[in-house]
Amino acid sequence: MPSCTFAEYIEQEKTEASRHEYVSGYKFEMPEISEEHHLIATKIETLFAAKLREKSYQLYSFENPLWIEQVAVCYYPDMMIIPTTQKTETPYKTNPNLIIEIFSSRTQATDRQEKFSNYQAIPTLQEYILISEKEPKIEIYRKKEGYWRSQTLKETEDIYIQTLDLTISLEDIYQNSFIDD
Fold first, then answer.
1. pTM of the model
2. Which domain holds residue 45?
3. Contact of 22 with 92, CB cutoff 8 Å
4. Fewest CB atoms within 10 A around its CB: which of 38, 56, 101, 161?
């Protein structure tokens, strides 16, 4: 793992066959996305579509890197929501209000610990949502009065997305996924 600057990393990502995350000067190859992961992500994008337009937000998917300058890391969140007023000419995004990670057994520890710790350095971030790809379970972390509070939802509960003022059911998120089998 050769060390590189962030500028070098961004240039290299443009031509790499696979995506890499950048942590303090080092690149780490990202795992392939599973079919279950893809089904859940597509469903969420569909469920969010109308509210995104209404609230003037843009959803960016896993193809878009997120640079967190405060901690010198660049990740590819599964989804992030950023106000449409926040235009940038850079190949990476900054300052989302909401980040969503769809986790597998292989990525859950990193998503819960390392990434969440680093995401907390983003001043605009208000919600962090972890979605299991193996069972109908969602963890929501919300920033309130400077503190992060968590809530875990399972099976038939509804999830309230504060950033979008949107309530959707876990059943809708997991509909037509492997879990229905």
1. 0.92
2. 33-64+76-180
3. no
4. 56
